[in-house]
C-alpha cells in the first residue's frame, strides 16, 4: 500500500492519525518546495522524525534546559568520541548519573515534538507514505542525525497535541477529521511489490539539516556577553520563530530557559526579530512598541530597552537563527558588535558544513 496526496487536501496531523489507527510500519515524507520532512513509523508508533530545517543536537537541548552543565556534557562527549562502538550521548549521560532515564526520555520527546510541530504547520506541498520492513532495533547515533526514540511515541496523541497548538482548530474539527479520513482512503493505491527492507540508520540519512550544538551556543554567548547584559537565540522554522537559549535573564516564576523555550514569534508579525528575518539585515535601534515586541520583552522580563540589536545567521540564503541582545535593566549604551557579527558568520559557515 502506498499513500500519496497534497497537503492542501489533508493536514499532516490527520495523516498521522490515519497511519496510527492503521498500525502502519514505514516512512512518511513531506515536501513543500523549500523544506523536507520525514517521520518513521513502527506498528503505528513514531520512532524517528526529522526535517531539513535547522535543529538542535541533544547536547544543546540538555544544556539549555539545565539538565547537564558544560563539564558534564564535555565529559560525555569525550567518552563518546573515545568509544569503539557507537554510543548515544543520552545513554552516556545516564551512565554518568548526569541524567535520569525519565529525563532522557523527556528530552528525546521534546526533540521529536519540535520537528513534528513544525511539520504540522505545513499546509502546502505533497506527502507520501511507503510501507517498509524496518528492523526492530539498532544502535543509531542520536547526535549524528538526532531524534531516535527508544520508546516509540503514540502518534495519535502526538497529532492531538499538535492540533491544540493550531489557531484554526474549531468546533467543526470532528467533521473535518472524518472528511480527511475519506480523502486518505481515496489517496491509497495498491502496491503489488513486497515492502522494501530498511534500517533506521539508512532512513536517518534521508533528510539533512544544519545542527545547532551546545558548543556553538556557548561560543556565541561568550562573545555576546562582552557587549550585552542579556541575550537570546531564536530559531526560524518556516513562518515562525522559537526561542532556543538565553543568557543573563532574571529568574522568575519559571526558569529563564523554560520561558525562552515557550517564546513564539511570527515571521510576518512586526518585531525586531521578524525584521531581521525578512530583510536579512541587522537591526540596531529603539524597538517599536507593538504586540510582538511586547511578547518578546514579556518573556525576557525587565523594562523596555532604549536600544536593542538583532543579528541574523544566514544559511543557503535563508535566515535560520536570530541573535537578540540588549542591556536591560541597566539601559547602558550598546558597544561594538563587530566581534559578534564575525562569530555569527563562523556559525553560519559551520551550519553549512553540518548540512553537507
Please write out the topology:
Elements lengths: L1 E5 L5 H10 L4 E6 L4 E7 L2 E7 L3 E2 L1 H7 L5 H13 L6 H7 L5 H20 L5 E9 L7 H4 L7 E2 H10 L8 H15 E2 L6 E3 L1 H4 L7 E2 L1 H11 L5 E8 L2 E8 L8 H6 L2 E3 L5 H8 L3 E3 L5 H10 L7 E8 L2 E9 L11 H18 L1
Parallel strand pairs: 5-10, 6-9
Antiparallel strand pairs: 1-6, 1-8, 2-3, 2-6, 3-4, 4-7, 11-12, 11-16, 12-13, 14-15, 15-16
How would you sum up this structure, described in words?
The structure is a single chain. With 356 residues, the chain is an alpha+beta fold. It folds into 2 domains: 2-203, no CATH class; 211-355, Beta-Lactamase (2-Layer Sandwich), CATH 3.30.450. The protein has helices spanning 12-21, 58-64, 70-82, 89-95, 101-120, 142-145, 155-164, 173-187, 200-203, 214-224, 256-261, 272-279, 291-300, 338-355; strands spanning 2-6, 26-31, 36-42, 45-51, 55-56, 126-134, 153-154, 188-189, 196-198, 211-212, 230-237, 240-247, 264-266, 283-285, 308-315, 318-326. Strands 1, 2, 3, 4, 6, 7, 8 and 9 form an 8-stranded mixed beta sheet that branches. Strands 13-12-11-16-15-14 form a 6-stranded antiparallel beta sheet, with helices on both faces. The chain has a two-stranded parallel sheet with strand order 5-10. A hairpin with a 2-residue loop joins strand 11 and strand 12 (240-247).
